[in-house]
Each structure stands twice: as structure tokens, then as C-alpha cells.
């Protein structure tokens, strides 16, 4: 007699191997475990041939006219598609390439090396696992991730794997500098003084997520990352040449095509909350693929679960008018993140929970 499928038991058995999705791929599985199979999407979600805006940052710090034009482009992109790419951002291409190679080196290292970092203890500044929401989400994603909390307090260098240690610290130094520029542009796009978002410490936290998507034997049954919106203020994404990132736009998917040397920028839920819906946190996903492995590095500007960061965030008072009352309740980043993580990537917006009935 066939035994009933015990999902929790299967998830636990997989998790306890600590070898991740890469372990399944290395074992040569031809069928994906049942808990990776995604439910079918609802509605007409066909692909649209719309291009994500590419914004050149050359001269943005030195030429007032250029800066004004860039701010207009940023504002337009984030009020419509919700994503844009930046080029000439100040980070050398060789640094970008080496960061991606560091992610590959770690994920392709001996499984015994990776097991040293495999944990679900959220107090750890460096943790490696498969899906932060493995036990909460409706279905698992075909993806392994190493999370590194780099700010406000960074880990000690020896807490990071040797395979990506030096390049991660180097890359993050560049990202922090770029973050200052981007927060200024976002502040100006909101009609605020350039330092506004940094003055309220939106740049205080930085978390790096190093994603690795092994080739999948049945990519039509699962995804690399489920449809979701990010929980942070904004994200800087470095993706390799494989592709697969898609943005939901006017009820259709559009591809974010890889552009060597570019970085992808998108707004997170917390910036939509404090901008009172002026800037949009847009749902996106990553497809599974059979050609991989795909590597990406997502830098999230947010303090996430840091227990020492207790500032309350609500709709910015300068953006509130009689015709545009507050749409959201105040919250700490920690409380927002706890709710977001608790529900997992289930396709629903975490913002709904914090909204005010108008």
C-alpha cells in the first residue's frame, strides 16, 4: 500500500542533509522532490516585450543638469515599472565578476565546507541554507542562499567562507558608496532634500544575499524564487549572464535581461510604506533553468532583525496632505521583517498587514 505523503518529514529530511539544492543537482536527480513543485499561477501572466530602463550615472555627482535628468528618470522608473538598471556606477567590472565567482566558488566547494555555515539561527551574521522560509512557504524554491549581515555591525572576516571572504568585503565597500548616491537620488525623486533618507537611517543596515540556482531537471515545475516583493528600502542586485529575473508589470511578466557591468535597482516594501505609495515595491520572481548554475548577489538596505535598531518608520510627513493621508501604520524594521519572514514568500504583500483603512 502507498503511504501518505508527509511534507514536513520530507522537508526536515532534506534540510538535515545540509547539502542544499546543489546536493540534489550533484546527485543527478531526474525528478524534483514534491515539495519544490509550485502551484499553478492564476490569470493571464504572459510575457511582455518591455525593456527595463537603463540609467547612466556618469556625471551625476558633478553636473547639476545631468543629476536633474537622472532624478527624473529614476522617478519615472519607480512610479511605473518599479525597476531600473544603472551603468557607470563606480564599481569596476572586474570586482562585479569576482563577486559572482566568489559565490560560485563557495557553492561548488565540498559539501563538508558548506555544512559549517548551514543554519537557521537568525542571530548568526553569516548563515547558509535553502530557502529562509522552507517550512512556511507553499512550495520550496530551487535555490541555495548565503546571507551575510554586513551593517550596522559587520561580521569578523574569519566568519565568512574563505572562498568569498575578501571579495565580499571589497564589494560591500563599493556598494555602501553607491548606496549613498542612490539614497540621495531617491530622496530628490520624492521632492525631499538629498540627505533625507540617510538622515532617517534608511542606509544604516546592509544585508548581502548570495544566491545560487543549480540547473534543474524539471524547471517547468518549480521556480528559482517565488513571486514576491522585497521587504527592505531598496535592493541592489548583481546578476550573471544566465537570466531568469522577471518583473510583474500591468499583470504581465517582463524580463530583466542581464547587462554585463550593470546593477539592477528596485524599491522594497519599506520605501513604499514611508513614501506613502509614491514609489512602488513591485513583485518579481526568478525562473528555474536547466542550463545554470545561475549566481546573483542581492544587497538589501535594511536593518532587518537587528535588535538594536528601534526607530519607527511611517509615511513621511512632508509627503502627507489632506488629499493624501497616511496609508500605513508606523512600524519598526524588525517588526515588519518578523511579519514578512513569518508568512514567507507566499505571493501576498506584507504591506497589506500594515495598511490603514482610508
Automatic annotation (TrEMBL):
<comment type="similarity">
    <text>Belongs to the iron/ascorbate-dependent oxidoreductase family.</text>
</comment>
<keyword id="KW-0560">Oxidoreductase</keyword>
<dbReference type="GO" id="GO:0051213">
    <property type="term" value="F:dioxygenase activity"/>
</dbReference>
<dbReference type="InterPro" id="IPR026992">
    <property type="entry name" value="DIOX_N"/>
</dbReference>
<dbReference type="Pfam" id="PF03171">
    <property type="entry name" value="2OG-FeII_Oxy"/>
</dbReference>
<dbReference type="InterPro" id="IPR044861">
    <property type="entry name" value="IPNS-like_FE2OG_OXY"/>
</dbReference>
<keyword id="KW-0408">Iron</keyword>
<dbReference type="InterPro" id="IPR027443">
    <property type="entry name" value="IPNS-like_sf"/>
</dbReference>
<dbReference type="Pfam" id="PF14226">
    <property type="entry name" value="DIOX_N"/>
</dbReference>
<keyword id="KW-0479">Metal-binding</keyword>
<protein>
    <recommendedName>
        <fullName>Fe2OG dioxygenase domain-containing protein</fullName>
    </recommendedName>
</protein>
<dbReference type="InterPro" id="IPR005123">
    <property type="entry name" value="Oxoglu/Fe-dep_dioxygenase_dom"/>
</dbReference>
<feature type="domain" description="Fe2OG dioxygenase">
    <location>
        <begin position="204"/>
        <end position="304"/>
    </location>
</feature>
<dbReference type="GO" id="GO:0046872">
    <property type="term" value="F:metal ion binding"/>
</dbReference>
Amino acid at each position: 500500500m502507498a503511504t501518505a505523503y508527509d511534507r514536513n518529514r520530507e522537508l526536515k529530511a532534506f534540510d538535515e542533509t545540509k547539502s542544499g539544492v546543489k546536493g540534489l543537482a550533484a546527485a543527478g536527480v531526474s525528478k524534483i522532490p514534491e515539495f519544490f513543485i509550485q502551484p499553478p499561477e492564476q490569470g493571464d501572466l504572459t510575457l511582455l516585450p518591455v525593456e527595463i530602463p537603463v540609467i547612466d550615472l556618469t556625471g551625476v555627482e558633478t553636473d547639476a543638469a545631468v543629476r536633474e535628468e537622472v532624478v527624473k528618470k529614476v522617478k519615472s522608473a519607480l512610479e511605473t515599472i518599479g525597476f531600473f538598471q544603472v551603468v557607470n556606477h563606480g564599481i569596476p567590472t572586474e570586482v562585479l565578476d569576482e563577486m559572482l565567482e566568489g559565490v560560485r566558488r563557495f557553492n561548488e566547494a565540498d559539501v563538508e565546507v558548506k555544512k559549517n555555515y548551514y543554519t537557521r539561527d537568525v542571530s548568526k551574521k553569516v548563515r547558509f541554507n535553502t530557502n529562509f522560509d522552507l517550512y512556511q512557504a507553499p512550495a520550496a524554491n530551487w535555490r541555495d542562499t548565503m546571507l551575510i549581515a554586513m551593517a550596522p555591525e559587520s561580521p569578523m572576516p574569519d566568519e565568512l567562507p574563505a572562498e568569498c571572504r575578501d571579495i565580499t568585503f571589497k564589494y560591500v565597500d563599493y556598494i555602501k558608496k553607491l548606496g549613498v548616491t542612490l539614497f540621495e537620488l531617491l530622496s530628490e525623486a520624492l521632492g525631499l532634500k538629498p540627505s533625507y533618507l540617510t538622515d532617517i537611517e534608511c542606509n544604516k543596515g546592509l544585508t548581502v544575499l548570495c544566491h545560487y540556482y543549480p540547473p534543474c531537471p524539471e524547471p517547468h515545475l518549480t521556480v528559482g524564487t517565488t513571486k514576491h516583493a522585497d521587504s527592505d528600502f531598496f535592493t541592489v542586485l548583481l546578476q550573471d549572464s544566465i537570466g531568469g529575473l522577471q518583473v510583474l508589470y500591468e499583470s504581465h511578466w517582463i524580463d530583466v535581461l542581464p547587462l554585463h557591468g550593470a546593477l539592477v535597482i528596485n524599491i522594497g516594501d519599506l520605501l513604499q510604506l514611508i513614501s506613502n505609495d509614491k514609489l512602488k515595491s513591485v513583485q518579481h520572481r526568478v525562473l528555474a533553468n536547466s542550463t545554470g548554475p545561475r549566481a546573483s548577489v542581492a544587497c538589501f538596505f535594511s536593518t532587518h532583525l537587528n535588535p538594536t535598531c528601534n526607530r519607527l518608520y511611517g509615511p513621511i510627513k512632508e509627503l502627507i496632505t489632506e488629499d493624501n493621508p497616511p496609508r500605513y501604520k508606523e512600524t519598526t524594521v524588525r517588526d515588519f521583517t518578523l511579519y514578512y519572514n513569518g508568512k514567507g514568500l507566499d505571493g501576498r504583500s506584507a504591506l497589506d498587514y500594515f495598511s490603514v483603512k482610508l
